[in-house]
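Protocol step 4 of 5: obtain the predicted structure for the target chain.
Materials: sequence only (see below). No template structures provided, no constraints applied. The aim of this step is simply to have a reference model before the mutagenesis design in step 5. Sequence pasted as it appears in the construct record:
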Amino acid sequence: MHAFVFVLGIIFLTVVAPLWIIFHYITIWRASRRLSSGDEKALGELWQSARRMEEAPGWRMRAGG
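Step 4 output (structure tokens):
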């Protein structure tokens, strides 16, 4: 009986645990590829600021820069 548990433990450590860890990190990697809602909001604000600056050449001179 002890040998059976030992063999199951070895199989778990050599096959199941590495696959479990690999799939765990693949899931985390896929989730991190997407922008969070905060990132999307910040990107939208930056884009709007860039558009406003593009429409107003010379904005630095008027701002005193």
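Step 4 remarks: The chain has a mean pLDDT of 88. The two ends are 81 Å apart (CA to CA).
Proceed to step 5.
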